[in-house]
């Protein structure tokens, strides 16, 4: 019988079986099992050969198995095999079901958090008419949430892009006061709830070079970004900016804030991937449950070759556990 929140497992959804998800999950389990109970959701046929696992139907059994070094598995039946590097659409519905099952376990209190292995969206579309651009949107739909925020984090830096996967030419159009306001509010709340920062210091990048240079290199800072920041400052938020993005990521500057909010994808992801390429974690903020993920894809080119680096998965699991502790406290 599970008696404390710390004994509840962190769920790992299998992700694309033909990618590196199963092998990095097993490697991460070996690294963290002594102090962090895990529960893998997927088809056990897709685990690397020689994996020591046990199938269970009650998440309460995961803690003892994890402590003993045996990977707890809640089986999800899938229609296909797993050939490294070649996605099989027959597995698509099972991959989706593993995500949904993991969310259900966290939502009903049987697990602490979900850590999702990378999916292959084309296979999900071909095999199950998957209607979402990716993990994040599907998780938001499962939670009944309209707007969530993507954070990328490593030991040296946390960043949040306001606009994400849109062409650079489209950023200025998509970047609205409403979107920026919601992103800042969600980020502020998550820093308090999930990271235990009582008064988050949020650095906000400008859109244009030199944050617009007083309107000489763009007016978005004057016309939209600064008014949003001023309005939220009046509500008590500690906001720095808009800042010139080319001077806000060096070591001394990073000491002045807890998270950086950037206006577009590369403005945020280049610094965090430079500082923590192998250990970056993708976190979805604004969900009623905790979700983390390694910051990489399925890596079909190295799947099954023993070359996959589990560092990002390990970091994602440890961050999920830290966030769960912060929520519980």
UniProtKB/TrEMBL annotation:
<comment type="subunit">
    <text>Homodimer.</text>
</comment>
<dbReference type="GO" id="GO:0008615">
    <property type="term" value="P:pyridoxine biosynthetic process"/>
</dbReference>
<feature type="binding site">
    <location>
        <position position="282"/>
    </location>
    <ligand>
        <name>substrate</name>
    </ligand>
</feature>
<feature type="binding site">
    <location>
        <position position="265"/>
    </location>
    <ligand>
        <name>a divalent metal cation</name>
    </ligand>
</feature>
<dbReference type="GO" id="GO:0050570">
    <property type="term" value="F:4-hydroxythreonine-4-phosphate dehydrogenase activity"/>
</dbReference>
<feature type="binding site">
    <location>
        <position position="136"/>
    </location>
    <ligand>
        <name>substrate</name>
    </ligand>
</feature>
<dbReference type="GO" id="GO:0051287">
    <property type="term" value="F:NAD binding"/>
</dbReference>
<keyword id="KW-0521">NADP</keyword>
<keyword id="KW-0560">Oxidoreductase</keyword>
<dbReference type="GO" id="GO:0050897">
    <property type="term" value="F:cobalt ion binding"/>
</dbReference>
<keyword id="KW-0963">Cytoplasm</keyword>
<feature type="binding site">
    <location>
        <position position="135"/>
    </location>
    <ligand>
        <name>substrate</name>
    </ligand>
</feature>
<dbReference type="InterPro" id="IPR005255">
    <property type="entry name" value="PdxA_fam"/>
</dbReference>
<keyword id="KW-0664">Pyridoxine biosynthesis</keyword>
<dbReference type="GO" id="GO:0042823">
    <property type="term" value="P:pyridoxal phosphate biosynthetic process"/>
</dbReference>
<dbReference type="InterPro" id="IPR037510">
    <property type="entry name" value="PdxA"/>
</dbReference>
<feature type="binding site">
    <location>
        <position position="291"/>
    </location>
    <ligand>
        <name>substrate</name>
    </ligand>
</feature>
<keyword id="KW-0862">Zinc</keyword>
<feature type="binding site">
    <location>
        <position position="165"/>
    </location>
    <ligand>
        <name>a divalent metal cation</name>
    </ligand>
</feature>
<keyword id="KW-0170">Cobalt</keyword>
<feature type="binding site">
    <location>
        <position position="273"/>
    </location>
    <ligand>
        <name>substrate</name>
    </ligand>
</feature>
<comment type="pathway">
    <text>Cofactor biosynthesis; pyridoxine 5'-phosphate biosynthesis; pyridoxine 5'-phosphate from D-erythrose 4-phosphate: step 4/5.</text>
</comment>
<keyword id="KW-0479">Metal-binding</keyword>
<dbReference type="Pfam" id="PF04166">
    <property type="entry name" value="PdxA"/>
</dbReference>
<keyword id="KW-0460">Magnesium</keyword>
<comment type="function">
    <text>Catalyzes the NAD(P)-dependent oxidation of 4-(phosphooxy)-L-threonine (HTP) into 2-amino-3-oxo-4-(phosphooxy)butyric acid which spontaneously decarboxylates to form 3-amino-2-oxopropyl phosphate (AHAP).</text>
</comment>
<comment type="similarity">
    <text>Belongs to the PdxA family.</text>
</comment>
<dbReference type="GO" id="GO:0008270">
    <property type="term" value="F:zinc ion binding"/>
</dbReference>
<feature type="binding site">
    <location>
        <position position="210"/>
    </location>
    <ligand>
        <name>a divalent metal cation</name>
    </ligand>
</feature>
<dbReference type="GO" id="GO:0005737">
    <property type="term" value="C:cytoplasm"/>
</dbReference>
<protein>
    <recommendedName>
        <fullName>4-hydroxythreonine-4-phosphate dehydrogenase</fullName>
        <ecNumber>1.1.1.262</ecNumber>
    </recommendedName>
</protein>
<keyword id="KW-0520">NAD</keyword>
<dbReference type="GO" id="GO:0000287">
    <property type="term" value="F:magnesium ion binding"/>
</dbReference>
């Amino acid at each position: 019988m599970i008696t404390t929140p710390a004994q509840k497992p962190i769920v790992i959804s299998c992700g694309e079986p033909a990618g590196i998800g199963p092998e990095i999950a097993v490697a991460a389990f070996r690294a963290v099992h002594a102090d962090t109970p895990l529960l893998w959701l997927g088809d056990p046929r897709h685990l690397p050969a020689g994996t020591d696992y046990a199938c269970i139907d009650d998440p309460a059994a995961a803690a003892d198995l994890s402590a003993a070094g045996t990977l707890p598995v809640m089986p999800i039946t899938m229609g296909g095999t797993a050939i490294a590097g070649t996605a099989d659409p027959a597995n698509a519905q099972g991959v989706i079901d593993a995500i949904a099952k993991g969310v259900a376990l966290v939502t009903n209190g049987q697990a602490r958090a979900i850590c999702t292995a990378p999916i292959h969206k084309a296979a999900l579309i071909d095999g199950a008419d998957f209607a979402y651009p990716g993990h994040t949107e599907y998780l938001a739909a499962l939670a009944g949430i309209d707007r969530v925020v993507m954070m990328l984090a490593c030991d040296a830096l946390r960043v949040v892009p306001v606009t994400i996967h849109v062409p650079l030419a489209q950023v200025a159009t998509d970047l609205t006061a409403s979107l920026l306001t919601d992103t800042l509010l969600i980020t502020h709340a998550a820093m308090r709830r999930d990271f235990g920062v009582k008064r988050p210091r949020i650095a906000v990048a400008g859109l244009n070079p030199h944050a617009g240079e007083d309107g000489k290199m763009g007016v978005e800072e004057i016309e939209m970004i600064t008014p949003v920041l001023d309005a939220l400052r009046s509500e008590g938020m500690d906001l720095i900016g808009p800042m010139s993005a080319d001077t806000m990521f060096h070591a001394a500057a990073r000491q002045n804030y807890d998270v950086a909010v950037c206006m577009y994808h590369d403005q945020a992801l280049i610094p965090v991937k430079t500082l923590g390429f192998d250990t970056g974690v993708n976190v979805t903020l604004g969900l009623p449950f905790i979700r983390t993920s390694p910051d990489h894809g399925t890596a079909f080119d190295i799947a099954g070759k023993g070359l996959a680096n589990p560092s990002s998965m390990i970091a994602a699991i440890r961050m999920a556990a830290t966030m769960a502790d912060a929520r519980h406290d």
